[in-house]
Amino acid sequence: MHTVAVLALDHVVAADMATPIEAFGRARLADGRRPYRIMVCAATPQVAGDAFTLIAPHGLDVLREAGTIVVPGCSEQAPPPASEVLDALRAAAAAGTRIASICAGAFTLAAAGLLDGLGATTHWMAADRLARLFPRVDVRPDVLYVDNGQILTSAGAAAGLDLCLHIIRRDFGSAVAADTARLSVTPLEREGGQAQFILHAQPPVPQGSLLEPVLSWIEDNLAHEVTLAEMAMRGGMSQRTFSRRFREQTGTTPLQWLLRARVRRAQLLLETTDHGVERIAAQAGFGSATAFRERFKRVVGVTPQSYRSSFRTNAP
């Protein structure tokens, strides 16, 4: 039987904590046997969660016997991981133990140095902070999970379930993983990555900037062709100067900003209207339905139809 140790830290998120317990606990082999033994552990007997208090039946010593360690995420109010926790994770990694994180659990792995030089993900809202605090980590905010072999990371709690199913499939095959997915009422594989959940809001522009009226004009004219030359003219600059100042103030290029603005407009239309793809393509300024589908999928990670199926609301 494979031992999975779920490590609880102060201010652990309930959903992140429950995900590996539920997923590995539901797994069954063809003969009905449980392939995993789950052991909840912590540095202290009692751990304060977001809205609960958790009594951990095991200490950090169980990390030495685990085949897999899962580190759930903690809220932003959580203190830095204790040195004994980081030391235990480093020792487990050195011994070859598989270590996975859910959501903000990636910050704990990064603090232990286990993500240095590796690709990793976390919740898209925390991705920039992870990259800023740990520059040696190759942060990938648009995927559901990253499998580096021994070290694995996932995005939010739902993506943590995707990762657990992936691990089960690695360990015992697709049939066991598919049965676990059915019991969890979730697909074994979801279309697209985390990019479809990201709100593609535009970078803020300093108040009073010369760019403010230009960007307002772009927003009002997304349905029309907008060129770099027109943007620069509206800003009263040469194209070269405009492009340089645009990047300085927004962190991106004018054309990249324009694409994100069009994608966001399309997202809102897909979420709140019944307009067809051709009409949305025209309203968002993509020129054609084919160009719209290609660029939307490149940025968001799924097709417009799939996005609408997931995020359609009844809002007027």
In short:
This protein has 316 residues and is α/β, with parallel strands linked by helices.
General description of the model:
The protein has 316 residues and is an alpha/beta fold. It has 2 domains: 2-195, 3-Layer(aba) Sandwich (Rossmann fold), CATH 3.40.50; 211-311, Homeodomain-like (Arc Repressor Mutant, subunit A, Orthogonal Bundle), CATH 1.10.10. The chain has 13 helices and 10 strands. It has helices spanning 14-26, 83-94, 105-111, 127-133, 157-172, 174-183, 211-220, 228-234, 239-250, 254-272, 277-283, 289-300, 304-311, and strands at residues 2-8, 36-42, 46-48, 53-55, 68-71, 98-101, 119-120, 138-139, 145-147, 151-154. The strands form 3 sheets. A 6-stranded mixed sheet has the order 2-1-5-6-10-9, with helices on both faces. A two-stranded antiparallel ribbon has the order 3-4. A two-stranded parallel ribbon has the order 7-8. Strand 1, helix 1 (14-26) and strand 2 form a beta-alpha-beta unit. The longest helix has 19 residues, at 254-272. The chain is elongated, with a radius of gyration of 23 Å. The model has no long low-confidence stretch (mean pLDDT 88).
